[in-house]
């Protein structure tokens, strides 16, 4: 997982900020960082595989992808440990996730993230790298 | 120069950001704050109110309550009314993710001194009966066809299913069931998230709390609401759970995509909006009403189950407990209401985000037994200090489209609160409080120090004639999500 910063200047809420060498790594990095805020990802095993496909527009596509993964989490208790981009265009993203069902006996809940918002959402190229910021509704 | 510096003090507790402060601003943004609360006002919250003041069809002013803090796109504590007969917009972000998040207050015949040694046991009993916390699911699991009934009928559905009494409904905003709710405007994903969450508190700042009436300030209103000093009340704070969140997420995406089609320039994507009188706008409104009805049903079930748990623990029947709904209202919602604007009566879509409807005495939408005194306005505080019961005053109609504040408002982010609690020592902070919860993390995020003093917020609302304090309520025991 790519290292990331926690955003703490938002009253009542939480968020993440990260940089990556490619847009693909940025998308997967942001998705995994979100789940690392939910529970410690080092304790999650890559047992099952899920594919997610989301359409939208940049930069909102990033929040849309995270929201699709959060829905998977709420519905099937799925927590991804790894993420691979299969396709990424300005209107579409398709990822393969490997992870497992949240197991309260092994996984400690950290923050409850209900949604990735469009507020202050950033996906941009900066100094030859890509940078993103996502603010969560918690 | 920051926007906060541009605020002009118009009168005591009233600050105005005049038209012309930001490009395209159509109406002023009016902030209701004491000097102390003004100090804490964030520049970003002023910016968010100013952004909303640029949207098409925004009417009279953006009003901001004293419990304001930065939200996503629109500040918490914000009120925006748009012209529903003309070009006014509807904005999911100005209503919020937790559609019809709100509060319910229930009376009992118990007295605080009678139950003092039993509070811990009572709260444990409530904890057993009322699912709370991360990913909590309830005992009610509904297929889509039955969920549709919930989305149309709201609290009445819960009463039909045995969770309450028909008379409960008269003391709920809009009788617990909003018209114009379309279950088919709600996505499959939203149904999936909501199918097993009815009757659950959820997480975050939601709670079920046992409270005692500590002080009565308005005897007449207190009599009308059936409360007196030392009486034990039950307060429920929850909303539309995953279903409401999904409705907001779905429509935010749709509305953001559709806005350019209507020539709307968005100052912030989270404030995305479309004309209320557009296909997308109407569809969101119908989905939002359906989610709001889910929330009314949720609080109806939660309140009834919590009261049952209290009664059972004390070996009483519900009649002996004196179960009676005092009131239930939303604080994240959009409502069609009529107001006089420039001498003409207009139907406006009033967006209230972290703001409570506060209708004055005589308002036709109030139940007959409250019409003479006004609408109860329930203001939850933090779990250490106090909550308040207010009553709407005529000033609310003049000053804020019939709206008051919704709570204390945060001063620390959740992460800051946890850090503070660890530094000071959680035991020290929580030592005099009875708090039951599944996870310790939420409790630390919700420590009293993370919130403004609700008394200061209420003082501003009272002095402006928006609402009047009826009673101060002291927390006895809290079930946190």
Keywords:
heterodimer, A: 138 residues, alpha+beta, Archease, Possible Chaperone, Chain: A, domain 1, 3-stranded antiparallel β-sheet, 8 strands, globular, B: 481 residues, tRNA-splicing ligase RtcB, 8-stranded mixed β-sheet, 19 strands
Verbal overview:
The complex is a heterodimer of chains A (138) and B (481). Chain A is α+β, with helices and mostly antiparallel strands and 138 residues long. Chain A has two helices and eight strands. In chain A, strands 1, 2, 6, 7 and 8 form a five-stranded antiparallel beta sheet that branches. Chain A has a three-stranded antiparallel beta sheet with strand order 3-5-4, with helices on one face. In chain A, helix 1 runs parallel beside helix 2. The model of chain A has no long low-confidence stretch (mean pLDDT 93). Chain B is an alpha+beta fold and 481 residues long. In chain B, strands 7, 8, 9, 11, 15, 16, 18 and 19 form an eight-stranded mixed beta sheet that branches. Chain B has a seven-stranded mixed beta sheet with strand order 1-2-3-4-5-13-12, with helices on both faces. A two-stranded antiparallel sheet of chain B has the order 6-10. The mean pLDDT of chain B is 95. The chains are: A alpha+beta (138), B alpha+beta (481). Chains A and B meet through helix 2 of A and helix 7, helix 9 and helix 13 of B.
């Amino acid at each position: 997982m790519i290292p990331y910063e926690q955003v703490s200047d938002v009253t009542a809420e939480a968020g993440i900020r990260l940089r990556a060498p490619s847009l693909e790594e940025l998308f997967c990095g942001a998705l995994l960082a979100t789940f690392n805020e939910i529970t410690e990802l080092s304790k999650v095993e890559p047992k099952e595989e899920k594919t997610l496909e989301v359409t939208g527009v940049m930069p909102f596509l990033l929040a849309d992808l995270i929201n699709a993964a959060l829905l998977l989490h709420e519905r099937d208790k799925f927590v991804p440990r790894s993420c691979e981009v299969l396709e990424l265009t300005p209107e579409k993203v398709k990822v393969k996730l490997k992870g497992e069902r949240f197991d309260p006996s092994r996984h400690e809940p950290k923050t409850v993230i209900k949604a990735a918002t469009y507020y202050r959402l950033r996906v941009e190229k900066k100094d030859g790298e890509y940078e993103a910021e996502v603010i969560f509704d918690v | 120069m920051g926007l906060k510096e541009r605020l002009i003090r118009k009168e005591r507790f009233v600050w105005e950001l005049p038209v012309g402060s930001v490009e395209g601003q159509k109406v002023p943004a009016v902030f209701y704050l004491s000097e102390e609360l003004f100090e804490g006002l964030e520049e970003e919250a002023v910016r968010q109110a100013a952004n909303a003041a640029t949207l098409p069809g925004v009417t009279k002013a953006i009003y901001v309550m004293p419990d304001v803090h930065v939200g996503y796109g629109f500040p918490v504590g914000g009120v925006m009314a748009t012209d529903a007969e003309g070009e006014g917009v509807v904005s999911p972000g100005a209503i919020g993710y937790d559609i019809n998040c709100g509060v319910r207050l229930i009376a009992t015949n118990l007295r605080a001194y009678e139950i003092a040694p039993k509070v811990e046991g009572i709260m444990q009993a409530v904890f057993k009966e009322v699912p709370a916390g991360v990913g909590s699911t309830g005992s009610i699991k509904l297929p889509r066809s039955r969920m549709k009934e919930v989305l149309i009928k709201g609290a009445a559905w819960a009463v039909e299913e045995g969770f309450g009494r028909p008379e409960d409904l008269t003391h709920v905003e809009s009788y617990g069931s909003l018209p114009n709710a379309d279950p088919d405007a709600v996505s499959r994903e939203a149904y999936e998230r909501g199918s097993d969450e009815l009757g659950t508190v959820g997480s975050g700042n939601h709670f079920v709390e046992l409270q005692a009436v500590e002080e009565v300030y308005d005897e007449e209103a207190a009599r009308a609401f059936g409360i007196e000093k030392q009486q034990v009340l039950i307060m429920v704070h929850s909303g539309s759970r995953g279903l409401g969140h999904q409705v907001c997420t779905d429509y935010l995406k749709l509305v953001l995509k559709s806005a350019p089609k209507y020539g709307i320039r968005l100052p912030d994507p989270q404030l995305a909006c479309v004309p209320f009188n557009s296909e997308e706008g109407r569809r969101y409104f119908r989905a939002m009403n359906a989610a709001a009805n889910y929330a009314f049903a949720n609080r109806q079930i939660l309140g009834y189950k919590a009261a049952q748990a209290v009664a059972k623990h004390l070996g009483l029947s519900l009649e002996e407990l004196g179960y009676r709904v005092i009131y239930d209202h939303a604080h994240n919602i959009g409502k069609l209401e009529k107001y006089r604007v420039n001498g003409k009566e207009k139907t406006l879509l009033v967006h209230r985000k972290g703001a409570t409807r506060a209708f004055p005495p005589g308002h036709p939408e109030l139940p007959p037994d409250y019409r003479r005194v006004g609408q109860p306005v329930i203001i939850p505080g933090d779990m250490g200090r106090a909550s308040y019961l207010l009553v709407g005053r005529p000033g609310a109609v003049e000053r804020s489209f019939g709206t008051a504040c919704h709570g204390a408002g945060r001063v620390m982010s959740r992460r800051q609160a946890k850090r503070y609690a660890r530094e000071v020592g959680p035991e020290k902070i929580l030592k005099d409080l009875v708090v039951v919860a599944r996870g310790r993390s939420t409790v630390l995020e919700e420590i009293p120090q993370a919130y403004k003093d609700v008394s200061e917020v209420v003082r501003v609302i009272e002095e402006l004639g928006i609402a009047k304090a009826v009673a101060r309520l002291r927390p006895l025991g809290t079930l946190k999500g």
